[in-house]
Amino acid sequence: MAYRVLALDVDGTLVCAAQKKITPETTAALKDLQSRGVIVILATGRSRFASTSDILGTDFPPDWRVCVNGAQVLDKTGCLVHEQRFALKDVESITAFTARHGLPLTFTFEDAYYVYSNYEEYISYYTSYTGPVPYLRDGSDHSRHTESLPFGAYIIRMPGKQSAALAELCPSIKLMETYPDAYDVSPRSADKKHGVEWVISRLGIGFDELAAIGDSDNDRELMSAAGLSIAMANAPAHIRASADHVTGSVEENGVAAAIERFFGTG
Fold first, then answer.
1. What is the pLDDT of residues 139-198, one digit of tens each?
2. Are residues 62 and 16 located together in one domain of the fold?
3. What is the DSSP string of 180-221?
4. Hey, how many other C-beta atoms are within 10 angstroms of the C-beta on 59?
5. Are 116 and 137 in contact (CB under 8 A)?
6. Any alpha helices (H) in 102-150, and if so which ranges?
7. Is residue 266 over pLDDT 90?
8. 99 and 126 in a common domain
């Protein structure tokens, strides 16, 4: 099967805590793929400002970016062409729930991540994975969402029992565990699968012509829909078990190895 599109995650797939920038080997493989007419989509939980090439330490420009787990879709120029946001009632419920349980909470807005609770703890957590970042703001006054509603949220240090309680409290949201006790939170209808589908349907391409690479629960629906699903070696066991193929870890340039195996080289 000749795949016309490659959709791939960022954290845990292209970068990780130990390898915070995309390696030159992976950059070269992605650029070679594009030169042969394959469309490359970044499908990430990160926002538009946290998934730019300079942040990722590469000169590789993706053809599309599906950000905040499908709540933002951007074209090659960085123009936002599709979006979904939380309902106000869900923002208020998530804020009250995390405050009641003392959980660090961050909302994703168009200009920055606003940390609504446990600012210092969240800063330490986030920078341990990404390094210093310019787009984290103190939102402890809980006022930013009165200007515009957020696209997504991230909650850390939340055990399974509390995540289940939050899901029951807010049935119109979706929680996806990215690391142990750490959750991406999105509007129910926003996920990477639907974001990528928004792109490929406009290009006249079906999921059977798409290969997807990921490592986490927020990649699972996209990987299940793809004609070829590839899990990173650093993915949890249930993600690896459900994939068509398992490639190397981030440190082992697993994305570059998968591209060579399934797309060949120029």
1. 999 999 999 999 999 999 999 999 999 999 999 999 999 889 999 999 999 999 999 999
2. yes
3. TTEEEEEETT--HHHHHHHHHHHHT--GGGEEEEE-SGGGHH
4. 11
5. no
6. 119-130
7. no
8. yes
Tokens encoding 105: 């909470």
Confirm if 163 and 184 have CB atoms less than 8 A apart: no
Which tokens is 87 given? 């309902």
Q: Which letter does DSSP use for residue 98 in this model?
A: H
Local confidence band at 224 (pLDDT 50, 70, 90 cut-offs) = very high
pLDDT of residue 244: 98
3-class SS at 57?
coil
Q: What is the pLDDT of residues 94-136, one digit of tens each?
A: 999 999 999 999 999 999 999 999 999 999 999 888 888 889 9
3-state SS, residue 191:
coil
Q: Is the domain of 228 the same as that of 244?
A: yes
Residues 166 and 36 in one domain: no
Residues 68 and 25 in one domain: yes
Show the tokens assigned to 92.
């208020």
Place of tokens 């066991």: 237
21: containing domain: 5-83+190-263
Q: What angle do CA 209, 1, 22 make, to 5 degrees?
A: 65
Give the span between the Cα atoms of 124 and 7, in whole angstroms: 30
CA–CA distance, 103 with 106 (Å, rounded to integer): 10
Structure tokens at 254: 């697993």
- The number of distinct structural domains making up the chain is 2
Separation of alpha carbons 148 and 105, rounded Å: 17
Tokens linked to 223: 């990987």
CATH number of residue 163's parent domain:
3.30.1240.10
Identity (one letter) of the amino acid at 71? A
Predicted TM-score of the model (pTM): 0.95
Which bin fits 158, alpha (ψ -120 to 50), beta or left (φ > 0)? beta
